[in-house]
Write a structure and sequence with these properties.
The chain is about 40% helix and about 20% strand. It is of the alpha/beta class.
């Protein structure tokens, strides 16, 4: 709940993904508000006070590099990644990668990293796209509690976070 923290959400949703009637940034803001409304900390509902910046554009190399440089960590609680080039780019800037403990990125992230998010494999139950539910897809389900703990660790212990970024980059 620290007001000094800033979460940058870099994504790209297009009208083709959402439907022409949807505004992409408004859709993201509404989704974030729904998530914030369901957050609990030690059994009590709370609303985070950190600033959230949404970037829903295709960015050039210079712009992306400036985001990596300004960041303390790279966070991607994905339900499934292959190689994950953005994680490699973050490692080039010696930024620690906070990702699930399962996925293609485990080929270049040490299993000993303190920034791996606990996760489990679950059947996909997509309410948005019935296709994925119908074929009994299995995906990674990152633990929200573990994610929160890893992000808090990166925010509170910047010196150790920087050292872990250097170690991950060298792995």
């Amino acid at each position: 709940t620290d007001e000094k923290a800033c979460l940058i959400l870099k994504t790209y949703l297009s009208k083709a993904m959402l439907g022409a009637e949807q505004n992409e940034v408004e859709y993201l803001k509404k989704s974030i508000d729904q998530i914030k409304g369901n957050l609990f900390h030690y059994g009590h509902n709370f609303v985070p006070k950190c600033k959230i910046v949404i970037i829903n554009d295709l960015l050039g190399k210079k712009q992306l590099n400036s985001i990596y440089k300004a960041s303390d960590a790279f966070v991607l609680p994905s339900r499934g990644e292959g190689f994950c080039l953005p994680a490699v780019e973050a490692l080039n800037y010696q930024k620690p990668v906070i990702m699930p403990d399962k996925g293609g990125h485990m080929g270049f992230i040490s299993k000993e990293s303190p920034f791996l998010i606990d996760s489990k494999m679950e059947y996909c139950e997509s309410t948005r796209d019935k296709f994925w539910s119908s074929i009994e897809s299995i995906w990674v389900e990152p633990s929200a509690k573990s994610l929160r703990e890893k992000m808090r660790l990166a925010f509170l212990d910047k010196q150790n976070t920087k050292q872990i970024g250097i170690e991950q980059e060298q792995y």
